[in-house]
Amino acid sequence: MRGLPDSILIKYVKEGNELAFDHLFRRYEPLIKRIAKKYYVHGFETEDFYQIGAVAFYRAILSYEENETTTFYSYVLLCVRNEIVSQFRKQLLKIEYATANEDIAIVMESYKIEKSEIIDEENDDVLHAYRTKLAKLLSESEFLSPLERKCLKGFIDGLSYLEIAKKHGFEIKKVDNALVRIRSKFKERGIKK
C-alpha cells in the first residue's frame, strides 16, 4: 500500500480500510505537524493543535471529491489549516473573555460597583471607567518595559491580543507573556487596576 497514489488510498479509507488510512496519515503527518507548530495559545499546546489537525485530516479524506482543479494535498492543507486557525481563534476569545471578566471584576471592586448595576460585560460606563483607570496606571508606571507599555496601551484601547501583535509586529505569545508580566508587576506593587 505504501506506493499507492493518494486517490487509491482515499478510496480504500472511504471503504473502511484502516491500513490505508495509516499509510495516508503517515504521508501527511509532517504537513499536519508543520501547521500545528505555528500556533500557540496559553493553556493550549501544539499537541492539542496537532490533534485537531489529525481529526481535520480524517474529515478531509471523507469529504474529498477528486477533480481536476483541487489536488488532495491542497485540499488537506486548506482543511487542516482552517480547522486549526478556527480553534486558535476560539482559544484566543476564551482568554480575552476570561481576562475581560477578571479585569471588570477588579474594576467593579475598586469602584465599589454592585454586580446588580452591571447588566453585562459590555456595559459602556464600566468599560470606560476601566480603560480610564488603566490609562492612568500606564502613565504612572515607570516600572513597565517599552514592550509592556505598548501591549498595555493596546489592551487599554480595546485591541485583541492578535490586533496588538499585528500592530507592533510581535508574536501573539509575546503579547500574552507581556500582559501576564504586567499583572504580576501590578500585584507585586499592590496596585489594583
What does this structure look like?
The structure is a single chain. The chain contains 8 helices and no strands. The longest helix has 39 residues, at 72-110. The relative contact order is 0.09. It is mostly helical and 193 residues long. The protein is elongated, with a radius of gyration of 23 Å. Helices cover 72% and strands 0% of the residues. The chain has 2 domains: 6-89, RNA polymerase sigma factor, region 2, helix turn helix motif (Rna Polymerase Sigma Factor, Chain: A); 111-188, no CATH class. Helix 2 (18-37) crosses helix 4 (72-110), helix 4 (72-110) crosses helix 5 and helix 6 (146-156) crosses helix 7 (161-168). It has helices at residues 6-14, 18-37, 46-63, 72-110, 124-140, 146-156, 161-168, 172-188.
List keywords for this structure.
single chain; 193 residues; mainly alpha; Rna Polymerase Sigma Factor, Chain: A; 2 domains; elongated
**Termini distance?**
62 Å
Q: What count of structural domains? A: 2
- The fraction of residues in strands falls at under 5%
Detail the poorly predicted runs.
Answer: 104-123
Instruction: Predict the CATH topology of the largest domain.
Output: Rna Polymerase Sigma Factor, Chain: A
Principal-axis shape equals: elongated
List the helices and strands and how they pair.
Elements: H1 6-14, H2 18-37, H3 46-63, H4 72-110, H5 124-140, H6 146-156, H7 161-168, H8 172-188
